[in-house]
Design a protein that fits this description.
The chain has 340 residues and is α/β, with parallel strands linked by helices. 26% of the residues lie in helices and 27% in strands. The chain has a single domain (3-324), classed as P-loop containing nucleotide triphosphate hydrolases (Rossmann fold, 3-Layer(aba) Sandwich). Helix 5 packs parallel to helix 6. It starts with a strand and ends in a 9-residue tail after the last strand. Bound molecules: adenosine-5'-triphosphate.
Length: 340
Amino acid sequence: MNPIISVKNLKSFYISNILDVTVVVKAVNNVTFDIFDDEIVGIAGESGCGKTTLLNTLMGIIDPPLKVFGGEIKYNLNNKYYDIVKLEEDEKTKLRWNVVSYIPQGSMSILNPIRKIKKIFFDFAKSHEDLDENKFERIVDERLESLKLPLRVKNSYSHQLSGGMRQRVAIALATIFKPKIVIADEPTTALDVVMQRDIIDLLSEIHEEEKNTMILVSHDLSIHANICARIMIMYAGQIVEIGKTETIFENPLHPYTKFLINSLPIIGDKKVREAAPGKPPSLLNLSEGCPFHERCPIALPICSRKNPRLKWKTEDHAVACFLHGGEDTYHEQINAKTYI
Ligand SMILES: Nc1ncnc2c1ncn2[C@@H]1O[C@H](COP(=O)(O)OP(=O)(O)OP(=O)(O)O)[C@@H](O)[C@H]1O
């Protein structure tokens, strides 16, 4: 099966100059993975591990201080290949919304509070392409109805809607042209558990109906468990494990993934949940070796010297850990100076 998105050795760093010193935050650090047609893939990891930066780069939103220092992101759209990193801005604009759409973090708050929802839809459409207003209004009505939103929301201001309703509107807006790929960053954040369920069900319904590909970021693995076919675990700018959702939950291989799963609450189980000890490393100053070695209770001597590569253990389960692969699986630390 051909991937719809193929990411190879992607390095996406923030570069700034503070008091004449170049500061490099290695937010996405040599990442390689494939995303397939008609699947929902989750990206999980602690706050600050690079999830949003990865999504922005996938969307081609690469504004300073963010810079891509290497690698490629290839979209395969009807057997035409596009490297989003190299596309001109107008070509990216053509792809966005129609082909690939983004539900950004805190998307409910992107709804302009002084514009009625209907106007927000029109503003959004106009910024994208020349559309006949009547035709577009019919598209909006159909979308709102298919997402079970009452048409009266069109005449409301965002503050008149509940948090869940606002998020539904934001999703309706982002998916109005039924894009082939939907990228959602923390779509359930700031919602109560009932609303979280509602949004997850909505995304599942859109996926079922439109057979699109979804990439869903959340720091909460229980959200992924409910909707994703596969999960990628991200740690300190790197993908450290990829697998089918049931494999990740039943047979996690990376010690960090194990901590993530063990820290999830289980109804009726009063055992103290165990989170990973210590704090995630600063992406400004990564030490040598595996980025998790300082927090890893079972680190080997090699782990402080070399950084393991992602190695496929089975056809659909990969892990970057020396406990599951030999010395041949390391890659040298990426020295940002090489790229500046
Ligand atoms: N504009 C910026 N300039 C410099 N560093 C940045 C910038 N934006 C983000 N970073 C840093 O890049 C790293 C990755 O951030 P990112 O927001 O991608 O992580 P995340 O996993 O999405 O976190 P969260 O779950 O909190 O949103 C962090 O160390 C963050 O501080």
